[in-house]
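Fold it.
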Amino acid sequence: MKNSRTDFSRRSMLGSLLALPALAQQQLRPTVSTSESLDTTEARVRASLKGAKGTKLVLLGTGAGPLPGQNRHMQSSVLLHNGVAYLVDCGLGVTDLYARTGIPFSAVRSIFITHHHPDHNVEYGPFLIIGWIHGLNQSVRAFGPPPLKQMTEDYLRSMKVTIDFWAEDFKLTPFGMIVCTDLPKAGPVTQDENVKVVSVLVQHPPVYPAYGYRFDFPDRSIAFSGDTVPLEAVAQMARGADVLVHEAMDVPATEKMVRQQSTEWHAASFDTMMHHMMADHSPTEDVGRIAQEAGVKTLVLSHLTPDSTSLVPDRKWIQGVSKYFKGQIIIGHDLMVI
């Protein structure tokens, strides 16, 4: 099991990201099952959550990487318990997807960011502003790696004119700085009457720190790996949890996708890109090992690389993890309720 830090330069990382948009061109399809329209999916999600008892996990975006227009939206999930919502990550599309669940914006109590990559935080600020217009409370709190507090202050400062216009027009109290907690190290995060939250340090170089989170509700424990190579620390964090949401990468399909596009890249070679992928992400089989070691009841695969169903249909993801994990396996799709 890989658990050593890999020295991966920022230049290589940026070069890889610049090349990524080319990968999306062969992966365009709706963000829901091709057999189901977005309106039908929305109706299904709302019906599943109406009068829901106990803790519900809603996968909002399940894609990997900063790729607009891809098969799945970027990363975000929401946990709902006793009418209170806890948001995990804010990739592009989170605001629209959240609205489609029918959960009121006023229900959001806390937002948790795993790490500062755009597919996890790019819509954090916009979610606050659009949410405020639709009832998000000023008391909402945010937690994440530094410099989350500074980022929040800077964003709200940049939007002050817009906020003031809306406040004047609709007689709203202007949205101001929220309570933000920078998490410089792993450990206890927060606790309220519904949930206890802890974090674990994961490996996603060169991003540091990057976290996974565990949420312990009275009826259910749900852990998120964040973006990481397979780690013993994640297995320990998720020990005995009901659900582990873990990123996954099908290595042969990723190699095929990268090789198909390598001639179009100007900033990253095949070797550079695959070096990044192996240094930062978790092969499917290893995810199965982590989940089995953790003893979780259900493994949910999200942040899927690649997310093209033609390259990796759901059954192939299941085949990979089921070599080692013997519990329930769910392949994540946008707006799935678990």
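Confidence is low (pLDDT under 50) at residues 1-34.
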